[in-house]
Prior knowledge:
Layout: H1 5-17, H2 38-47, H3 52-66, E1 76-79, H4 83-95, E2 107-111, H5 141-148, E3 152-157, E4 173-174, E5 178-179, H6 195-202, E6 208-213, H7 219-224, E7 228-231, E8 251-256, H8 259-269, E9 302-305, H9 315-318, H10 328-340, E10 344-347, H11 361-381, H12 392-401, H13 403-406, H14 415-420, H15 429-451, E11 456-460, E12 474-481, E13 514-520, H16 526-540
Helix pairs in contact: 3-4
The structure holds 2-acetamido-2-deoxy-beta-D-glucopyranose (9 copies).
Amino acid sequence: MLFPTCALIASILVASAFGEFLQTPRHHDLPDLYEATFAELQHGLDKGHYTSVDLVKAYFARIEEVNKQGANLSAIIQTSPVALDAAAHADKLRKHGKALGPLHGLPFVVKDNYDTQYEDGMNTTAGSYALINTHVQRDAYTIEKLKKAGAIILGKANLSQFAAWRGIVPNGWSAVGGQCYSPYYPQGMPGGSSSGSAVATAIGLSAGALGTDTAGSVVYPASYNNLVGVRPTVGLVSRAGLVPITEHYDTAGPHARTVTDAAHLLNVIAGPDRWDNWTLAQPEPLPDYTAGLSKHALRGVRLGVPWEKIGYSGAAAAGGNGLPESLNPIFYNALEVLKSLGAEIVDANITDIDSLLWFDDGRASTYGADFKWQLEAYFEGLLDNPSGVRSLEQLIAFNYDHPELEMPPTYESMSRMEAALPYSRANASYLAIVSNDTFTAQQIIHDTKAKYNVSAFVFPSPQNAGWYKAMFPQVTVPMGFLPDDTVATPYLNTATVPPSNYSNIIYDPYPGKPHGLTFASTEWTEAQLLSYAYAFEQATHVRLQKRAYAEAVPKTQLYDVL
Ligand SMILES: *[C@@H]1O[C@H](CO)[C@@H](O)[C@H](O)[C@H]1NC(C)=O
Ligand SMILES: *[C@@H]1O[C@H](CO)[C@@H](O)[C@H](O)[C@H]1NC(C)=O
Ligand SMILES: *[C@@H]1O[C@H](CO)[C@@H](O)[C@H](O)[C@H]1NC(C)=O
Ligand SMILES: *[C@@H]1O[C@H](CO)[C@@H](O)[C@H](O)[C@H]1NC(C)=O
Ligand SMILES: *[C@@H]1O[C@H](CO)[C@@H](O)[C@H](O)[C@H]1NC(C)=O
Ligand SMILES: *[C@@H]1O[C@H](CO)[C@@H](O)[C@H](O)[C@H]1NC(C)=O
Ligand SMILES: *[C@@H]1O[C@H](CO)[C@@H](O)[C@H](O)[C@H]1NC(C)=O
Ligand SMILES: *[C@@H]1O[C@H](CO)[C@@H](O)[C@H](O)[C@H]1NC(C)=O
Ligand SMILES: CC(=O)N[C@H]1CO[C@H](CO)[C@@H](O)[C@@H]1O
């Protein structure tokens, strides 16, 4: 892949000497793919410094370097066999002055629970061998929207199997994709369940990515991978064509390296879709999510800190509680930055927040109850599934029948699937609890917002605090890094599997672990939250304060493929 360096330098010298760099770009005309923004990538495409075909080739080479060798990050399950054709088509349109907007010709990866049309030659497995070689009906609505905006689907990203609704297994693992790792520490926890989407975006294996978020699955890996992540209000982005957990809480949202890029992605994927009637209740017209991005967006804004309960998403399941102490100075510093930007920071404890926690024991199965019939409806919609699996019972049986694929040591748990088994669509008793809890969560957050007269809440990511239960939005933005003397600690399963039995160790926390700051508020406040995150981002530029570890940074750049 790498061209001989001397030939490269010679061609640059020639190009400069003859002033031909419009055709033959110099190194510094080419964006660093580790960090390139959409605007930077578009600039080079428009100038003709490189094409979308070049971009796809470069990203493919970068994936090859780190995905299953070297740092072995297992972020990508499959690359697209039609991405180069799609790129050539995008190049042709651009040449004829018909570029379709800020995403035109840019390659994105999508979590492997997004349906991609059969003709594109990729699986949609949610990480399970029970869904290998299925024939889905069509692209997910969001994929269709990306394509209509000129974007290229580069490949499918690894994930916690079934978006973490399998059981208590380490995040980022799926049978099909293997164990995804963080690029910030060898064998570091990548966060989940949109693990591969986040890792790919963090080190420039794509321009950005889409994930899904039911109870933190976009925000949590975004925080762990030093990214911007948006969990939209339920009903802003269609879930049609996604492998579901629950229509009550599933959302689809972007991972990006900058707030502006995330806003561009949200602009494209948000909107009403008749195939997901929850989207028909959204306000019209939607704002342009890039329009309000301003360095001054925090002036005079009151932000509430729900001090009383700041804790990890999934804390109970992980056996943890609260944030690491070493995060305190990072969070306090972030609050000082917010104040310096004109925000007023107030205590805004959310009363009754205990009733809002997601993973409290009695409720986990209730919230998972949708999973059985909605997953079965997904199975029903497949034109073909060679495994023959059509029900949750059969899925669980499939795993027991293929333990070598589906149940390697430390990855045996199917507790969430099993908890969903007793439910059916007909038995709607759980729905009353779900809607009552959701209504209650919404009331509490609205009331607290009014009581303290705040525009939004701010806290360290990932945090739970009932936002998922309320179907409300969150935006996370890079905030800082745990100290370098943080002890790398083997994570999870210590309760059920002695460390000597680990098939592989996953560390969490670890030295230099990235940590995000979350802005959260009530329904349809995405534009506001993005603008606050933007002001913070522009004042701090946290992302590049620490790069991934050397082996996890792909070396291929655009000049290697030109
Ligand atoms: C799906 O994945 C299987 C197993 O990795 C592979 O053999 C098959 O070619 C893939 N199917 C498509 C359509 O890419
Ligand atoms: C990559 O990691 C997986 C575990 O996820 C392991 O089985 C495999 O051997 C590793 N491969 C390399 C090349 O290190
Ligand atoms: C969506 O449609 C289903 C039936 O197809 C109906 O039960 C449900 O109430 C509708 N939801 C909304 C938000 O309109
Ligand atoms: C919020 O909760 C924290 C922690 O329990 C407490 O220290 C603080 O006094 C509370 N603030 C208000 C305004 O109630
Ligand atoms: C099904 O509904 C019945 C009556 O409404 C209830 O007693 C039972 O616990 C429900 N089953 C589950 C698994 O919730
Ligand atoms: C609804 O939730 C509230 C708060 O958790 C609870 O007090 C009330 O009993 C619930 N109502 C029903 C009908 O379940
Ligand atoms: C609420 O806060 C805003 C500033 O964000 C201020 O202008 C307004 O007067 C406050 N309202 C009350 C009732 O305190
Ligand atoms: C741990 O490994 C030992 C053998 O080294 C085995 O006997 C035991 O069953 C394993 N335990 C678990 C929980 O996997
Ligand atoms: C693109 C890529 O590297 N895909 C790999 C994902 O992981 C599976 C399982 O290890 C490999 O078979 C794929 O080649």
